[in-house]
Amino acid sequence: MAFIDKLKPVVTVGVFGVLLSTSGVHADSAPPGEADEVVVEDWIFKFTPSYYFTTNQPGAYDLNLRANHGSHAVWLGYYQQSDEFEQARTGYEYTMQIPFVQLVPSLQAATHGFVGGSINAQIGDSIFAILGFGRTNLHEYYNLNFDPNDSITYGVGTRLLPNSMLSLFAIKDDRLDTGQIVTHLVWRLSADDHQRWTIDLSSKHGSPTAGEPSVAGPGLTVTYDFQDVFVRLAQDQKVNFSTENQTRLSVGLRF
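Now predict its structure.
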């Protein structure tokens, strides 16, 4: 089946999200409570193709197109792992900024009947708290966030370091009794007006499902932005709490 045909189940939802955003009614994930893009009034697009190398499994690819307009963002994506699994998805995100508080609610729908949502908050300014809550309908979904989705998030961050933002937060399963928790230490450094480095060091432990043996492993993701182009390389042991390790390579373009 052609790629366009596979997207048909979610295109309608994606177009509806765009219509909502233009009428006034915003993971490539940023750390919880942090907007992934600078809020602007013009349409800004970001296209991110990725390839995943996983031990003892066929390779997989993912295509993601994200559009930002002011405080709103919508996206369409498609993931495929050989002939074993494929999934198209769409989502909508809104960034609400009030004094000393940033709230980011989001919704996502995907083929195979998946629906999920979350709300994340950043409270404070130079030093801030990070809080979040997520829920899904537990339908089949390849987790491209690589963190628990039915979860709570808590942490802290600071902008006191020169040209930097540093955050430490944990994302913990609070629904499925797996004991899953992923802790992230994220450092964003703006080298100058055209370059930015993002380093995400993570550690995970927990069971794939309740009652199974626990696994543990580190992860490291490095992203380099130069003007409108970026490259991201990730190494993730025990990816998604499986027994496998994964290397991910992404390139992207903003336009």
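The domain at 3-254 is CATH 2.40.160.40 (Porin).
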